[in-house]
């Protein structure tokens, strides 16, 4: 199935939304757990890597 513009746009939008969610969680964790900056960063990084992988897989699926 060829990649369509609407498919690609939906994936990009979902990815951008997830990045916003991840950022909001990072900020909340930094506020709630100011002494665990590294733990907050690790959770954010894990989420970011998963979101990137999901985006890449979805783009592969619509090629």
Walk me through the structure:
This protein has 63 residues and is mainly α. The protein contains 2 helices and no strands. The chain has helices spanning 5-32, 37-61. The model has no long low-confidence stretch (mean pLDDT 95).
Keywords:
0% strand, 2 helices
Write the layout of secondary structure elements.
Blueprint: H1 5-32, H2 37-61
Helix pairs in contact: 1-2
Residue runs with pLDDT of under 50 for 5 or more positions: none
> How many structural domains in the coordinates?
1
Shape designation: elongated
Rg result: 15 Å
Class from secondary-structure proportions: mainly alpha
Strand runs, count: 0
SSE string: HH
Helix coverage percent: over 70%
Query: How much β-strand is present in the residues?
Result: under 5%
Largest sheet: none
Q: Please work out how many helical segments DSSP would assign.
A: 2
First-residue to last-residue Cα separation: 6 Å
What is the overall pLDDT average?
A: 95
Short structural summary:
The chain has two helices and no strands.
């Amino acid at each position: 199935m060829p990649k369509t513009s609407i498919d690609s746009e939906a994936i990009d939008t979902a990815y951008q939304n997830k990045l916003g969610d991840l950022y909001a969680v990072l900020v909340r964790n930094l506020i709630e757990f100011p002494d665990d900056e590294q733990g907050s960063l690790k959770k954010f990084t894990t989420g970011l890597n998963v979101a990137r992988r999901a985006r890449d897989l979805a783009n592969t699926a619509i090629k």
